[in-house]
Amino acid sequence: MPVKLLNTRELSKCTAKVLRNLPKTGPQIITRGNEPVGILLPACKGGIEEDIDLLQRIAFAKALDRVQRDAVLSGANAISMDEIDAEIDAVRAKSRKSTAQR
Q1: Could you tell me which of 43, 50, 88, 102 has the fewest CB atoms within 10 Å of its CB?
Q2: Closest C-alpha among 54, 33, 37 to residue 45
Q3: What tens digit of pLDDT does each residue of 53-92 get?
Q4: Is residue 8 within 8 Å of 30, Cβ to Cβ?
Q5: H-state helical runs in the chain
């Protein structure tokens, strides 16, 4: 199903029509100027809980994508498991030393 672009002006003028047709038209990207600002999705027949679950999974996927992209850009994706273990050991040793001095 293709995604339709919908300008905020069109949405404000025809809100009732847009919402009425949403199940037929499918997802719509809301734009202001030429910039996307939001997404309208038809509600799932399974209920609002299903929609909320879907939105939470989308938010998680976006966050994971950001973290993975940042790791690639910083080179952290190339760290070996031995280097990761060594870093964890160093932090734990520092923590133990700090706790012992109290």
Answers
A1: 102
A2: 54
A3: 999 999 999 999 999 999 999 998 999 999 999 999 999 9
A4: yes
A5: 8-13, 15-25, 48-74, 81-100
46 pLDDT tier (thresholds 50, 70, 90): confident
Q: How far is CA 4 from the centre of its chain?
A: 20
Instruction: Return the bridge partners of 40, or none.
Output: 28
Contact 3, 26 (CB under 8 A): yes
- Assess contact for 4 and 28: CB atoms under 8 A: yes
Which burial class, exposed, middle or buried, applies to 65 when counting CB atoms under 10 A from its CB (0-12, 13-18, 19+)?
exposed
Q: Is 80 helix (H, G, I), strand (E, B) or coil?
A: coil
Name the band, by pLDDT with cuts 50, 70 and 90, for residue 101.
confident
* List of residues 6+ apart from 41 with CB closer than 8 A: 22, 27, 51
Q: What length is written for the chain?
A: 102
